[in-house]
Amino acid sequence: MALILENIAQHVALTVQEQELFLSKTEIHHYKAKTIILNSGAICKHSYFVNSGILRSFNINDNIVEHVMSFACQGWWIGDMYSLLSQKPGNLFIEVLEDAELVLLSKENQELLYREIPKLERFFRILTENSLVANQERLMDNLSLTAEERFEKFCKKYPSLIQKITQKQIASYIGVTPEFYSKMKSRLLRK
Questions:
Q1: What's the distance, Cα to Cα, between the start and end of the chain in Å?
Q2: β-strands 46-60, 26-31: how paired?
Q3: pLDDT tens series, the chain, 191 aa
Q4: H-type alpha helices, the chain
């Protein structure tokens, strides 16, 4: 549990008693690769912190095409923010790509912790703001950058993932077909 406490300590300082209270409101779960931990149409009831492993959030459109929204590796948080905050059915799937150990924090316990440890409200506000900024940046990148530039940004953001996830998932994340991605990668390797 040291990793999640280090993650929190990057933004707020908790006393030992506050750390113990926080940890008492979380659960550790282990998941095998290919496990779907959240289905589209379900209400997201937890925030997930990745102690180990890799996850992705994605959506499937009406044409049965997957669109990868995000990846989360060790030390990252993931969830369906719309569903978690609104407590309405979401439109994201969350899948375990590599066997994972996750720390789960329920929406109910998160709200309780806000009352008991107001610093945690600041912590989660910072996480939400960072997520909003990252999503806006990604949207602007998708509108203004070439596929090659988006791939280069992906490589910088997720350097440890390049060898661990499928080319199809990378292609989906940067917004191109697997065929286009393969041709683009071949071009980049020849440079």
A1: 44
A2: unpaired
A3: 799 999 999 999 999 999 999 999 999 999 999 999 999 999 999 999 999 999 999 999 888 889 999 999 999 999 999 999 999 999 999 999 999 999 999 999 999 999 999 999 999 999 999 999 999 999 999 999 999 999 999 988 888 888 899 999 999 999 999 999 988 888 877 76
A4: 2-9, 16-24, 81-86, 107-116, 118-144, 147-157, 167-174, 178-190
Residue 16 DSSP label: H
Distance CA 106, CA 44 (A): 9
- The alpha carbons of the chain give a radius of gyration, in whole angstroms, of 18
Q: How far apart are CA 140 and CA 65, in angstroms?
A: 22
Task: Kindly tell me the sign of the dihedral angle through the C-alpha atoms of 158, 163, 164, 169.
Answer: positive
Gap between the Cα atoms of 12 and 124, Å rounded: 10
- Rounded distance, CA 18 to CA 109, Å? 14
Predicted TM-score (pTM) above 0.90: yes
Asked if residue 74 lies in contact with residue 50, where contact means CB atoms within 8 angstroms, the answer is yes
- Residue 39 is encoded by which pair of tokens? 């289905």
Please state, in angstroms and as integers, the Cα–Cα distance from residue 141 to each residue in 100, 132, 147, 154, following that order. 30, 14, 9, 11
Taking the C-alpha atoms of residue 11 and residue 182, their distance in angstroms, rounded to an integer, is 40
